[in-house]
Amino acid sequence: MSTVQETSNVSSLFGASRNASDSTQATQDRFLSLLVAQMKNQDPLNPLDNAQVTSQMAQLSTVQGIENMNNSLQALAASLGANQMAQAANLIGRGVLVPGDTIRPAEFEDIIGFELSRPADTVKVDIFDAAGGLVRSLNLGAREDGVNALAWDGLTNSGTAAPDGQYRFKVEAIQGGQPLSSTALHLGLVSSVSQGSQGVQLNLLGDEQVSYADIRQIF
Q: In sequence order, what DSSP letters do the residues of 86-132 get, joined into one string?
């Protein structure tokens, strides 16, 4: 067998083992067993190429290093997930400001929030009923960038109390005569926490679920 063929066989076995579901240790054992067998049976007049064998060994070490790094990252992620879960559990029974545009004219649920990418010259909030009718317009004037929050007094534009129910609001921010990017935020009460493929999740009253990372402010 020629040196090129022998080295090719080593590469093929290494590649197949690397793509299989076997562990890195099993791949390493197979590679070394094949290498030893080839060294024992090599043609003395046409020995194995040391440079190519060294290259194969370096590739094997790289694969093992990557798997070790992956194992370390998985362990770190699991540890962080457990810590985040413990922190999230402390939020049960508390209010959190998270992305959303719903609001109710009742205590605790009357908070309107929004996040601005830059300071705004003027901010206007319009509140709509379930049928899409305008209930109240709030002109808030200039606002700083970041998270802003205010409470709706539950009154309509005519000064009467809005009926209990779920409403939606829309935020319009202007800076320098141009529309400014904003994110609507609403308040939810944390009833429980859970962890899944998406990470730590907060379960809010009203069957709403949001990511722990979505929290903008805690009440």
A: HHHHTTTTSEEEEE--EE-SSTTT-EEEEEESS-EEEEEEEEE-TTS
